[in-house]
Design a protein that fits this description.
With 293 residues, this protein is mainly alpha-helical. The protein has 11 helices and 7 strands. The relative contact order is 0.07. About 20% of the residues have low confidence.
Length: 293
């Protein structure tokens, strides 16, 4: 009796979810980017329909073509998590191809980063920090992928801007072709990593802010600077990053509580005097309880 009652309660909910998905699909077919993303999410996470990563990718690609960095990031994640397995043979047996997955994942993460999506920028920073270059291959193979081109936008110049401009080079009416090689490049590239992290920090991505704190604390590709490390850990902590708060407290223990926070967000470790925060926009707030001179 209880089982029948439970089924009776669940059926209307299932039917409602399916009807909601059909309505969403109808709206997405009209070309609205937000609805396309919602349908992609529905297929990706099984919301109102069964999980289907290939259909999710189709809708995400359409949204990415309209300028959604989130959608491009989700496609990249599908490849990196091996959701989009290749098939081979007449029986179309699925198999994993880690090198291909990394190639394709990087292509869409690059598109996401070019669209200034914070997690995409953070992933690109990790990619260069970790020194990951597709792994060692036998010989030198390569792949070619075609992605939907985003709507024209101002690149803003700089390192990221150059990559965005590269994506914007036309190859046909609305597509961009990217060649991705499996050639191995050894070791991390901190200079490129920090550029990606800085761009991510500009859009308040918490993982990028935390990464910059690590870079300045440890001197990865930059001179060790505890004041700048405190700044970026402080930014990440203010956005809810628990580890950043821990690292900030440890730096305070190691170097002492700063005398002031400067107007550019850095901290001054010098004594209170006329030179405190000089070159950093002046004092925003005093941190200690000692009286002003």
């Amino acid at each position: 009796m209880k089982d029948w009652l439970l089924i009776g309660l669940l059926c209307p909910c299932i039917a409602y979810g399916q009807n909601s998905f059909k309505e969403l699909l109808t709206k997405a077919n009209q070309g609205d980017m937000k609805d396309e993303i919602a349908v992609g999410d529905a297929y990706n996470y099984g919301r109102g329909t069964g999980i289907n990563y290939r259909k999710a990718e189709e809708w995400y690609k359409s949204a990415a073509g309209q300028g959604s960095g989130y959608a491009a990031y989700q496609i990249g994640q599908e490849y990196l998590l091996d959701h989009r397995q290749q098939t081979r043979g007449l029986a179309h047996i699925p198999y994993s191809d880690p090198i291909y997955n990394m190639q394709m994942g990087r292509i869409f993460m690059l598109q996401s980063a070019a669209l200034n999506y914070g997690p995409g920028l953070a992933w690109m920073g990790w990619y260069y920090e970790a020194g990951y270059r597709m792994g060692q291959s036998v010989g030198d193979s390569s792949s070619v992928a075609t992605i939907q081109e985003p709507q024209p936008r101002s690149s803003g110049g700089g390192f990221i801007g150059g990559l965005a401009d590269g994506l914007a080079r036309r190859n046909g009416a609305d597509q961009t072709t990217i060649n991705s090689s499996t050639s191995t490049v050894g070791g991390p590239d901190y200079a490129d990593a920090i550029e990606w992290y800085r761009k991510g920090a500009d859009v308040n991505d918490v993982d990028c802010e935390f990464a910059l704190g690590r870079f300045y604390e440890q001197g990865l590709g930059v001179k060790k600077d505890p004041a700048l490390a405190m700044k970026w850990y402080g930014e990440a902590a203010s956005h809810g990053h628990a580890s950043a708060k821990t690292r900030l407290d440890l730096l305070f223990e190691q170097y002492g509580t700063p005398s002031a926070q400067c107007k550019d967000g850095t901290y001054s470790l010098s004594h209170r005097d006329s030179g405190t925060c000089s070159g950093h926009g002046g004092v925003a707030q005093w941190m200690d309880a000692s009286p002003s001179p």
